[in-house]
From TrEMBL:
It comes from Jiangella rhizosphaerae. It comes from the Bacteria. This is DUF3499 domain-containing protein. Residues 1-35 are annotated as: Disordered.
Length: 35
């Protein structure tokens, strides 16, 4: 019960956000394939 109530460390969250930001940056920097 304790483990369930205790929230998981915020470690997985930062990596995901960082990857998303990096990917967005790369996509913006690279020319749009559709364009």
């Amino acid at each position: 019960v304790r483990e369930a109530g205790r929230r998981p460390e915020p470690a997985p969250a930062p990596p995901v956000a960082g990857e998303g930001g990096a990917r967005r940056g790369h996509l913006r920097a690279l020319p749009d394939p559709d364009a």
